[in-house]
Amino acid sequence: MAGAVRRGRVRDVVLAAPALAVVAGLVHAAPPVGTLAQALPRHCPVEMTLVGDTCVDRWEASLVEARPDGSEVAWSPYHTPFGHKVRAVSRPGVVPQGYASMMDARRACEASHKRLCKPGEWRAACKGPQHTKYPYGDAHVPGACIDSGRTNALAKLYGGKAMFENKSMIDPRLNQTPNTVAKTGEATACTNASGAFDMVGNLHEWTDDGTLRGGFYLDVTSLKEGCEYVIGAHAPIYFDYATGFRCCADPTSGPPDAAKPAPPATKKIARRPRG
After folding, report:
1. Does residue 26 carry a pLDDT above 80?
2. Contact residues for 26 (Cβ-Cβ < 8 A; gap 6+)
3. Where is pLDDT greater, at 193 or 26?
4. What is the pLDDT of residue 164?
5. Average pLDDT in the 26-42 region?
6. Pair type for strands 252-253 and 212-213
7. Closest by CA position to 147, among listed 90, 240, 225
């Protein structure tokens, strides 16, 4: 017999193939091995949304830096986090982190018990259940995402070949120029039933294959369109003013309280001066 019953209780029930289980005096057909775990509800931290089998950050990542005393300070989104102990947070209404390399992004996600999204996971969240070219549909709607009518700060601050020199591309002033990068979730139409925002436009987003996806506030059409926009020419240590990211994670199975959120966004919160 698959299990032993003593004093009216089911003890050590191990079911292989459809069998009978005695529970509270009733006889139920038990599911095959493995199906019970699959049937349990899956949950994500509150700042993430469940897309298929993956938890995806709702908003582009911003960063907090850990201090020696255990407090955390909001990291400036206009400076590279290289060499600093940071972790990723996903929150609405903040300037997302640019100036991030793939290595920085991976490290920041892992510090919050997450990971960089796989390309297929990222596309699924971007396209939504209707599998559209843009989060909101197949036809490009200028301004529905942060992708039209924005200021070209490189052209404004530099000219000619100097625009594309490395020191120019990482100038902290670029994304501080008015009408460039927007706050997370500001483009309320740039989403779908998946529940993720800004996956097209605003900032490029690293995925774990070393590509940048979704375009940024000046371009979402030159290298395919919208959710299919992809750049694959950069090394994992590359960063510039337009390179951002968001994190993914595996969902938790079980009751809702089993889905523990990532570590709190802040303990003692202060803002790091922008140098």
Report:
1. no
2. none
3. 193
4. 87
5. 50
6. unpaired
7. 225
- Give the residue extent of every domain in the chain: 4-38, 41-271
The CA-atom distances, in angstroms, between 20 and each of 2, 14, 26, 31, 145 are 9, 11, 10, 9, 55
Task: List the end-to-end C-alpha distance of the chain, in Å, as a whole number.
Answer: 71
Q: What is the DSSP letter of 158?
A: -
Q: What is the pLDDT of residue 272?
A: 47
Q: Which residues of 146-172 are buried (b: 16+ CB within 10 A; e: fewer)?
A: bbeebeebbeeebeeeeeeeeebbbbb
The domain defined by 41-271 folds into paralog of FGE (formylglycine-generating enzyme) (3.90.1580)
Check: CB of residue 175 under 8 Å from CB of residue 32.
no
Q: What is the pLDDT of residue 193?
A: 97
Q: Residue 212's beta-bridge partner residues? A: 206, 231
Gap between the Cα atoms of 29 and 248, Å rounded: 37
Q: Is the pLDDT of residue 15 over 50?
A: no
Return the bridge partners of 230, or none. 213
Which residues, other chains included, contact 68 with Cβ-Cβ below 8 Å and sequence gap of 6+?
none
**CA–CA distance, 71 with 3 (Å, rounded to integer):** 52
Helix (H) or strand (E) holding 62: strand 61-66
Run of H or E including 123: helix 119-127
Residue 35 has pLDDT above 90, yes or no: no
Q: Which pair of structure tokens corresponds to residue 216?
A: 């940024």
Provide the 3-class DSSP secondary structure of residue 72: strand
For 209-249, write each residue's pLDDT tens digit.
Answer: 999 999 999 999 999 999 999 999 899 999 999 999 999 99
Helices (H) and strands (E) in the chain, counts: 5, 18
% pLDDT > 70, the chain: 77
Which positions ≥6 away from 38 have C-beta within 8 Å?
none
pTM of the complete model: 0.80
